[in-house]
Amino acid sequence: MLTFQRFALGALQTNAYVVVNSEKTGAVIIDPGTADGALMRKLDGLKVEAILLTHAHFDHIGGVDALRSKYDCPVYLHAAEKDWLTDPAKNGSLRWAEVTPPVMTRLPEHGLTDGQELELIGQTFHVKHTPGHSPGSVSLLVGDLLFAGDALFRRSIGRTDLPGGNQDQLLRAIREKLYTLPDDVLVLPGHGPETTIGEERRENPYVR
């Protein structure tokens, strides 16, 4: 059985996740906003197979290069935001100068595309392109866990007023890609507490 641990990191308390296989031998890191010590301690003795990015805003990528170098693992990101890793203006770190220095990382080793299936830690990660918060936003489904990035939150949705945002796109992606999942799928968002697909389909005031 897969296990995961959430780490709320950085000035914006962005959720990073470490997902560990049932054998407790392999791990995947999702959205490391910082190279946090507690997160790295969780990885002791594990083979880190990949860093998966739901999107490339600065608060989700600040720890990428430190972790990529330490664990010698590839980074995956949708091609629409590939160059955001190297450009502080695009990843938003220049806009939020009061909370972060400029963030720049090396380019990702691999792209992510809608419908792609990644075989990692003995599990299949299903990639769902869910743009609207940002052009390359993806949600990652593995088993009954959905890592939703900043697309869907508990009783809320990602903001769409940043460069590349589009509210109509986001609402359509949630309805067509996420609300079609089973009720008991656990939604693990980029900020805030977890929820379920069933709860959000019934209670989310932004998407009916």
UniProtKB/TrEMBL annotation:
Cofactor: Zn(2+)
Keyword Metal-binding: yes
Keyword field: Hydrolase, Metal-binding, Zinc
Reactions mediated catalytically: 3',5'-cyclic UMP + H2O = UMP + H(+); 3',5'-cyclic CMP + H2O = CMP + H(+)
Pfam families tied to this protein: Lactamase_B
SUPFAM superfamilies hit by this protein: Metallo-hydrolase/oxidoreductase
Domain Metallo-beta-lactamase: from-to ranges: 13-191
Top-rank taxon: Bacteria
Parts forming coiled coils: none
Function text: Counteracts the endogenous Pycsar antiviral defense system. Phosphodiesterase that enables metal-dependent hydrolysis of host cyclic nucleotide Pycsar defense signals such as cCMP and cUMP.
Descriptive protein name: MBL fold metallo-hydrolase
Organism of provenance: Cohnella boryungensis
Taxonomic placement: Bacteria, Bacillati, Bacillota, Bacilli, Bacillales
